[in-house]
Design a protein that fits this description.
It is built from seven helices and six strands; from the N terminus they run H-E-H-H-H-E-E-E-E-E-H-H-H. It is an alpha+beta fold. It has a domain of 138 residues. A hairpin with a 2-residue loop joins strand 3 and strand 4. Helix 1 packs across helix 7 and helix 2 runs antiparallel to helix 4. The longest helix has 34 residues. About 14% of the residues have low confidence.
Length: 204
């Protein structure tokens, strides 16, 4: 009887382990799927000193206004990516102008690359940790806290970087699966439904 009970415990523990690993794999799948639908925008401050953090926001505003004009006619992620790549030097120059005007002794660099990011929140958005394509404007050493939003679809550049573009929000929401939507828009710890079992069956 003891052996039978022990065997059942082992089986239950094994099933739980499979479910936990499967859930984690499904979360990674959702993050990778989400990453294919967005281009993020980050401005990394030189440090966490008050002056560096303040100038970071001024750079954000200047670069945001410049990029808004560049992307106003962009209708796709591919077009947005192409425009950004062609204008990275000028984006850095926009940041440099602000830094110089504010008396900062360091410069700025701009690049478009895929990088690993921790969990990040922006307004109602909560992006899980993982790899994302992003435009990164690095100020000086880039060791301070960064400001971020979503460049494509346009969730941060509309009249000012502080206003959301309703059309882009609608477009973004429609592009998400129900589980992706729950993962991105729910602030509290989200729970993936048993739908991830369908994903596991497809992977077999």
């Amino acid at each position: 009887m003891v052996k039978g009970l022990f065997r059942k415990v082992i089986i239950v523990c094994g099933l739980l382990l499979v479910l936990i690993l499967g859930r984690r794999q499904y979360q990674q799948y959702l993050q990778a799927s989400l990453a294919q639908k967005v281009i993020r925008f980050h401005v990394l401050a030189n440090s966490d000193l008050a002056a560096d953090q303040q100038v970071k926001l001024k750079v954000r505003d200047a670069v945001g206004a410049y990029v808004e004009v560049l992307l106003q006619d962009s209708d796709s992620m591919e077009e947005t990516r192409s425009i950004i790549r062609k204008n990275l030097v000028d984006i850095a120059k926009q940041a440099d102008r602000v830094l110089k005007a504010e008396g900062m002794e360091y410069g700025a660099k701009a690049k478009l690359a895929t990088s690993s990011f921790p969990v990040k929140e922006y307004g109602n958005l909560r992006f899980p940790a993982g790899k994302y394509e992003a435009v990164r404007v690095v100020l000086g050493q880039g060791k301070g806290h960064n400001w971020w939003c979503v460049m494509y679809p346009n969730l941060c550049f509309s009249a000012s970087v502080k206003k959301e573009h309703k059309k882009a929000w609608k477009q973004f929401s429609k592009s998400l699966s129900p589980d992706e939507w729950e993962m991105v828009f729910r602030k509290k710890k989200y729970s993936i439904r048993w739908k991830f079992l369908e994903y596991l069956r497809k992977k077999r």
